[in-house]
Design a protein that fits this description.
With about 950 residues, the chain is an alpha+beta fold. Helices cover about 35% and strands about 15% of the residues. The strands form five sheets. It has a ten-stranded mixed sheet, with helices on one face.
Length: about 950
């Protein structure tokens, strides 16, 4: 079997269960499996009416690796030993993978060769099974033969939601259990002490150290503040939980529960001793806090911003240093690709004319607040330390997991006259997948699509009867950093003039080896000090005064609030138009870009509780924790404040087209992460869709082809390499090594600059040597171009603000290796602007200085040729050093996508594509 990358992996070292000696012998395995096979639901013919479906067979979706994310112990053993897969665990992976080599000949008629038909209902001859969970007569779950997706139909609201919970547990029970423990900071105790598990729980606990009372308070507030819809959401959640718990009881007594419970020591495979804890309503908030932090919490990084600003001012002086810093920050770069491109301006996070309340640290005094205390055993070893450092950096960075993309074209530019959308969330690749597919039909609910496991009482991204919607991470700043002056000792601070004690919150975890995770015993305590302004993240001095830097986000203590928006999106009586769609997503407090398409209209809206800051406060930097600099009308008890009104959020209806790949939303709308400049991966979509729209007559297949083409393209090759070669070729290249490298790069560029196989399944890139050269060259050229001018300190500070590169094989950054999502964070815009400046081209929003060769074309050329020669001589084994999945030098494998194991079932790795994990292709033909 192929090896797998360890990344939050609970089962990469499956060993012989101690109570089952000799199980690796085939005969013993067969006996064991025969005794463990779970009862299967019998298929019965049924027909599902779809009179409420207005898509006319033109809605499709895909979600690898497969719908079935549960496996019994017998199925896990079969997978680990023989590589066999449970039904519907992997049947969408090959379909998804094949688009990379099959898209060039795509037609509308072939779309469902690469996607699934997402029409409502199941044809009678395609029914695989029908069940009435817990014997209820008010809900039926039908599963289709092709993908095993649950189609839930209820005659009562309670029954519908009960069925949704039951189906969720059937498909994702183990994963749901994992993530409720992640959300509570208890993963290692539950699933084992692997360093990756330690890092995962630490990453989330640092920013959301909720107590049980905190979780319950969020539910109470969401219900109390939302009237009838709030009460309905509570009722839905309770019915959903009842369905989950009913399945737990049934699978426990029937002994067909997920086998991971045995392998982690929670259940005994012989006696069935042990328990699977029932889910409770606070678990849903814990789950929501994880998903919100992963994908919907833009902001942070203010202390790192301050450090790089101070370094710039030290290098250049205050005035010029500030100018240099602002040019690299690119808050509102005039060359940035925009989602709302009609010229409308939505000022947010802009630089104030006269900043007030800034609390910049004294140089060299910043230290990160420790999270882990009293570590023992494997909680204190080298791997644990490295995991903790990575978790801390990820938690405190503004470079969030900015994923997902969207391409939406207005009907006036399509062949049919109906809008077309190709969109979806880029949530990474896991086994089982974080998302699950479902269709829900019941009173007040009518939708099909994807939902995060354990939060699937509503479809979160998908389609309704005559409309579809999706989202991308937006990343505008809803997190601020406050400097609180310390008093008395390091754990008291001044709040509105009173010396106030910090609240100490801690979680102690311990673990021991299990069959699933052989990590030796260990333990530690995670401790967070909380203030009214949020958790303490750093300590420093400001003007000689000791301070603690805290982070406060507007969604903190409000993880449950967004449930109302999702409830509305599923309600066919609420969403009937682009305007009602925009109204629905205004109730979602996470930072997302939302897209909509029906048979006539398209729409866009940027959601999130954007706090109204005090006059003069610059959200880029820490400010003093004083009343004058707090959010307007901020209530520290409830963490509520004034938020910018809906009209001030970027939005649009029926623009000619929309694209989003986590790029800048609109003019003057600043996102928290760095890198919204002249070159962004959003350009890959914008250039292609703009060309399609100019030609007119856009079809579903044409839009899918545009997405797929962009998903295989190296951003640096398409948008930066041409000008690099112009500099090099400004004189004849006489060095044979450099000349050969230039020829290879130019050949690759002429072929499209793609990272794609020579043929399906070859596992070898076309123009592989050119790909290797650029991968080796980029970090060398960036350092040689910028470090001499910036100096070591400022260069290092800027690389802490923005990674130099994010190739598919890069293990750094918020996404990591083998994760698909690539080319979001990097210095491509800086290189582009600087090289164009050296070439004498017009640059809007240039860098404050010229860096390559100090602006000399010949000196810049020398730098590029020198680094190119070094890159050309760098071996593939050095560029792609190998890991637990790939051997050194295996370029295709280094880029490849792996479904990272969060359970006992493993899957094969697939060729790199930079595209959404769950993806829809929709073109509605009519409307209610």
């Amino acid at each position: 079997m192929p090896r797998r990358t360890r990344h939050h992996a609970l089962f990469d070292k499956l060993r012989t269960p101690r109570k089952l000696p000799g199980f690796l012998k085939a005969a013993s395995v067969c006996v064991l499996i025969a005794g463990l096979l779970s009862p299967l639901v019998q298929a019965t013919p049924a027909a599902a009416a779809a009179s409420n479906d207005y898509c006319g067979g033109q809605c499709s979706d895909i979600l690898p690796p497969g719908e079935n994310g549960n496996a019994t112990l017998a199925q896990i053993l079969l997978n680990q030993i023989f590589g066999t897969e449970p039904d519907h665990a992997e049947d969408q992976l090959g379909t998804y993978n094949s688009l990379a080599t099959g898209y060039s000949t795509l037609t509308d008629a072939k779309i469902n060769t690469f996607f699934n038909d997402s029409s409502f209902g199941v044809a009678s001859d395609q029914v695989a099974s029908t069940e009435n969970p817990a014997g209820r007569s008010d809900v039926t779950i039908v599963r289709d033969k092709k993908t095993g997706v649950p189609h839930i139909t209820g005659t009562t609201r309670y029954g519908t939601e009960f069925g949704a919970g039951y189906a969720a547990a059937e498909d994702r029970l183990w994963l749901m259990d994992v993530f409720r423990h992640v959300g509570r900071g208890q993963l290692t105790t539950f699933a084992g002490g692997a360093a990756s598990n330690q890092g995962l729980e630490q990453e989330f606990y640092r920013n959301a150290p909720y107590s049980e009372a905190d979780l319950q308070a969020q539910i109470d507030n969401a219900v109390a503040n939302n009237g009838a819809r709030g009460q309905q959401a509570l009722d839905d959640a309770n019915a959903y939980l009842a369905g989950i718990n009913s399945y737990i009881d049934a699978s426990d007594s029937g002994r067909y529960f997920p086998g991971e419970y045995v392998l982690t020591g929670h259940k005994d495979s012989i006696t069935n001793a042990g328990t699977i804890d029932h889910f409770k309503i606070t678990d849903l908030v814990a789950l929501a806090s994880v998903i919100g932090a992963l994908f919907g919490s833009g902001g942070g990084g203010e202390v790192n911003n301050a450090i790089s600003l101070l370094a710039a001012q030290e290098k250049y002086g205050v005035t010029e240093g500030t100018k240099v810093w602002e040019s690299f920050r690119e808050r509102n770069d005039p060359e940035a690709v925009l989602t709302v491109h009609n010229g409308e301006s939505y000022p947010y996070g802009t630089k104030p004319d006269n900043p007030q309340g800034e609390a910049l640290p004294d140089a060299g005094t910043v230290t990160t607040e420790p999270l882990v205390y009293n570590a023992t055993g494997t909680g204190a070893d080298q791997s644990a330390t490295a995991a903790a450092e990575t978790a801390t950096k990820t938690a405190l960075s503004s470079a969030r997991r900015g994923m997902s993309n969207a391409l939406v074209v207005s009907g006036k530019n399509t062949a049919s006259g109906h809008p077309i959308a190709v969109f979806g969330p880029q949530t990474g690749y896991f086994a089982p997948q974080l998302l699950m597919l479902q269709e829900i039909q019941g009173p007040g609910i009518s939708a099909r699509g994807a939902s995060f496991a354990g939060l699937s009482m509503y479809v979160e991204l998908g389609r309704g009867q005559d409309y579809a919607w999706s989202a991308t991470t937006s990343g505008q700043d809803i997190i601020d950093s406050y400097a609180v002056e310390l008093c008395q000792d390091d754990y008291h601070y001044l709040f509105h003039g009173t010396c106030t004690a910090m609240d100490e919150v801690e979680q102690t975890n311990s673990w021991k080896p299990t069959t699933a995770d052989g990590t030796a015993a260990g333990s530690y305590t995670m401790k967070v000090w909380k203030t009214k302004y949020g958790p303490v993240e750093y300590r420093a001095t400001v003007g000689g005064k000791k301070v603690a830097y805290t982070t406060l986000r507007s969604s903190y203590m409000h993880e449950a609030d967004s449930i109302i928006g999702f409830q509305m999106l599923n309600d066919p009586d609420y969403v009937k138009s682009p305007q009602t769609f925009q109204s629905a997503v205004q109730h979602i407090n996470y930072t997302f870009n939302w897209f909509y398409a029906d048979s006539t209209h398209t729409a866009y809206y940027n959601s999130g509780n954007n706090p109204v800051r005090a006059g003069g406060v610059d959200s880029e930097f820490p400010v003093w924790g004083q009343a004058a600099y707090e959010w307007q009308n901020w209530n520290p008890t409830t963490n509520t404040a004034d938020y910018t009104p809906a009209a001030q959020h970027p939005q649009s209806i029926d623009q000619d087209y929309y694209i989003s790949w986590n790029n800048k939303q609109a003019l003057n709308y600043t996102t928290a992460s760095w890198g919204d400049g002249s070159v962004h991966r959003g350009n890959l979509l914008n250039d292609r869709v703009k060309k399609l729209v100019a030609a007119g007559g856009v079809t579903r297949s044409a839009l899918v082809k545009a997405m797929a083409d962009a998903s295989l393209t190296d951003l640096r090759a398409e948008d930066v390499l041409p000008n690099l070669l112009k500099v090099i070729n400004s004189s004849t290249v006489t060095d044979s090594t450099a000349a050969a490298a230039v020829t290879k790069l130019q050949t690759w560029l002429t072929a499209g600059g793609k990272r794609t196989e020579t043929s399906a399944g070859s596992k070898t890139y076309a123009n592989s040597d050119a790909v290797r050269i650029l991968d080796a060259w980029w970090p060398l050229l960036v350092k040689a171009e910028f470090q001499p001018g910036l100096g070591d300190d400022l260069y290092t500070a800027f690389t802490n603000n923005l990674y130099i590169d994010e190739t598919p094989s890069a293990a750094h950054g918020p996404t990591g290796a083998h994760a698909g999502s690539s080319f979001q964070y990097g210095w491509w815009s800086y290189v582009d602007k600087d090289i164009r400046s050296v070439l004498g081209q017009t640059v809007s929003g240039p860098l404050a200085e010229q860096y390559c060769g100090s602006g000399s074309l010949s000196a810049c050329r020398d730098i590029l040729i020198s680094t190119l020669k070094t890159a050309a001589g760098t071996s593939a084994s050095t560029v792609y050093p190998g890991d637990s999945l790939c051997s050194a030098g295996d370029q295709w494998c280094a880029d490849s996508i792996v479904q990272r194991t969060l359970g006992g079932i493993k899957h094969y790795n697939i060729s790199w594509q930079n595209r959404p994990t769950f993806q829809q292709v929709v073109e509605f033909t009519s409307h209610r």
